[in-house]
Amino acid sequence: MKVTFETPQGELVEAEAAEGDVLLTVAQDAGMPLEGTCEGQMACSTCHVIVERDWFAALPDASEEEEDMLDLAYGVRPTSRLACQIVLEEELDGLTVAIPAEARDMSEG
Ligand code: FES
Question: What ranges do the domains of the chain cover?
């Protein structure tokens, strides 16, 4: 399956992914500048991505913890998610997300 990342510069980067992969890892492997400082503990929000509107509804709902962390992320949009919480399933083949221009690391206060 494939996922597409839109860089802060507007460049589209396609990446190969497997079912069960975490979106954050796929993004990092594709060279996207997502720090993911807390490695999926929902404590940093540096893995914030903006999901393309058509895809947003296809994702499982965010947990309350994820919503809380997104409240603290910089430049949050209505379709923002934490990439460390998105596990790729077959239905998400073709998923497209944008990497925000700036990230703020909440784990560094
Ligand atoms: Fe820290 Fe996702 S990696 S919240």
Answer: 2-98
Q: Is the CB of 47 under 6 A from ligand 1?
A: yes
pTM of the model: 0.91
Whether domain 2-98 has CATH 3.40.50.300: no
**pLDDT lower than 50: segments of the chain:** 109
pLDDT at 5: 98
CA-to-CA separations, 86 to 6, 50, 58, 102, in angstroms, rounded: 17, 12, 11, 20
Q: Which two tokens stand for residue 8?
A: 């802060």
User: Cα of 69 to ligand 1 centre, how many Å?
Assistant: 9
Give pLDDT tens digits for 12-40.
999 999 999 999 999 999 999 999 999 99
Instruction: Tell me if 94 CB under 6 Å of ligand 1.
Output: no
Rounded distance from Cα 28 to ligand 1 centre (Å): 12
Q: How far apart are CA 61 and CA 58, in angstroms?
A: 9
